[in-house]
Amino acid sequence: MKAFMTNGTIDFLLKLEEKHRDIQFYFMTNSENGAAYYENSSKNVFNAGREYEVISETGEMKKEGFIVMNNIPVQEEEQPAFEYRFKNSKNAVDAMPGFEAFRLLRPVNGNTYVVLTQWHSSMDFNNWKNSDQFKKAHKKQSAKPAAYFPERPFVTTYQMYLEEE
């Protein structure tokens, strides 16, 4: 399955829905910008967007909630090991209250993977981060970034955009 994402002002991004009524877009915002995301389509409708292969998924994306994207640059030769780690680990996150969806996105161009999780609320995500399950799931990670990170990973968070009625 493919996934596509782009950034811009929310007003600009919302116009995409008018042009492409056959696509189920997910719009989100934060203090810096907006983002549009969609999946299950073979066509990229974004002029300046990013294309991904969905490597692993659980749950269904919803139009409401809180999105966390871990953006992780991975060197080409280390990508199989990186993907293997995600595909073969039990996702403790799936059972957490407030968990909605998970996507591991492999970039079609570039080297920055996106680990996307959707939560019912930011509080649910913070509860996960402070849980014993989170500590257990991340205990194998060292304080020093792994060798397969050519650049520093970074996190972006969004609130799903709800149009005012």
Automatic annotation (TrEMBL):
Gene3D superfamilies: 3.30.70.100. Keywords: Monooxygenase, Oxidoreductase. Residues 66-155 form the ABM domain. GO terms for molecular function: monooxygenase activity. Pfam families: ABM. It comes from the Bacteria. This is Antibiotic biosynthesis monooxygenase.
